[in-house]
């Protein structure tokens, strides 16, 4: 069973959806039967990396709302994440463009390490306050999952895998992806959003039965 997941490294609901999906897979004992492929989706392609701002400050400025309103939105997401065993630290999450991270996810896929690198990126962004657009950080994260730091540097400093990112985004547009996370199972069954674990289980069982 192939599961393609469109998501962004800086999307809080994508990490929550990832955990719920994984819980569904594990509860059904399907770990060995599923091939997970992460597809690129940039929520804010023009975003400028700015380590001086945290996510809540950026949210307030982007939406034109007060810091208090932005904090309420952030607290809501933190609560959702906590229920899934995630410890979001939004006060220290660095505002960063994710395009380079997406290019490196395609590189990681070519080395059979995409799933591990995706988890490392999400953990670094949401829990560790790391700048996921910083080369030194990306090299460290990549090395920790068994990727070659020198190759990571070469990819980062070149346009490599840019076309792969663009193709993912174009395909998302073609199939009507409005937001992420977006899950496509066996190219015929789609789920949008950070659905409940039970919903993911039902979808996986349905596709498994039909197959």
Task: State the gist of this model.
The protein is built from nine helices and six strands, in the order βαββααβαααααββα.
What order do the helices and strands come in, and which of them pair?
Elements: E1 2-7, H1 12-28, E2 35-40, E3 50-54, H2 55-63, H3 67-83, E4 94-95, H4 99-110, H5 114-126, H6 135-144, H7 149-156, H8 162-174, E5 182-185, E6 189-192, H9 197-210
Parallel strand pairs: 1-2
Antiparallel strand pairs: 1-5, 3-4, 5-6
Helix pairs in contact: 1-9, 2-3, 4-5, 5-6, 6-7
Write structural notes for this entry.
The chain has a single domain (2-210), classed as Glutaredoxin (3-Layer(aba) Sandwich), CATH 3.40.30.10. The protein is built from nine helices and six strands; from the N terminus they run βαββααβαααααββα. It has helices spanning 12-28, 55-63, 67-83, 99-110, 114-126, 135-144, 149-156, 162-174, 197-210; strands spanning 2-7, 35-40, 50-54, 94-95, 182-185, 189-192. 36% of the residues are buried.
Number of strands: 6
Strand content: 5-15%
Tell me, rounded to a whole number, the average pLDDT.
96
Low-confidence stretches: none
CATH architecture: 3-Layer(aba) Sandwich
How many domain regions? 1
Q: How would you name the CATH homologous superfamily?
A: Glutaredoxin
**How many helical stretches?**
9
CATH topology: Glutaredoxin
The portion of residues assigned to helices is 40-55%
Oligomer: single chain
Order of helices and strands: EHEEHHEHHHHHEEH
Rg calculated over all Cα atoms: 17 Å
Cα end-to-end separation:
9 Å
Across the major sheet, the strand order is: 2-1-5-6
Helical/strand content category: alpha+beta
Question: Overall 3D geometry?
Answer: globular
The biggest beta sheet, please?
4 strands, mixed
CATH class category label: Alpha Beta
């Amino acid at each position: 069973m192939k599961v393609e997941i469109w998501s962004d490294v800086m999307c809080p609901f994508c990490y929550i959806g990832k955990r719920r999906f994984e819980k569904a897979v594990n509860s059904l004992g399907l770990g060995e039967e599923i091939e997970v492929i992460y597809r690129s989706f940039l929520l804010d392609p023009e975003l400028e990396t700015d380590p001086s701002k945290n996510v809540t400050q950026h949210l307030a400025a982007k939406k034109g709302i007060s810091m208090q309103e932005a904090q309420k939105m952030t607290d809501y997401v933190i609560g959702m994440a906590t229920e899934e065993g995630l410890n979001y630290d939004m006060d220290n999450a660095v505002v960063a463009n994710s395009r380079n991270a997406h290019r490196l996810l395609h590189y990681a896929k070519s080395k059979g390490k995409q799933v591990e690198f995706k988890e490392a990126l999400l953990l670094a962004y949401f829990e560790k306050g790391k700048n996921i657009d910083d080369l030194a950080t990306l090299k460290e994260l990549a090395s920790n999952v068994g990727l070659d730091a020198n190759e990571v540097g070469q990819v980062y400093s070149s346009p490599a895998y840019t076309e792969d990112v663009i193709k993912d985004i174009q395909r998302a547009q073609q199939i009507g992806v409005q937001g992420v996370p977006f899950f496509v199972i066996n190219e015929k069954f789609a789920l949008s959003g950070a659905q409940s674990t039970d919903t993911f289980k039902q979808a996986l069982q349905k596709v498994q039965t039909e197959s």
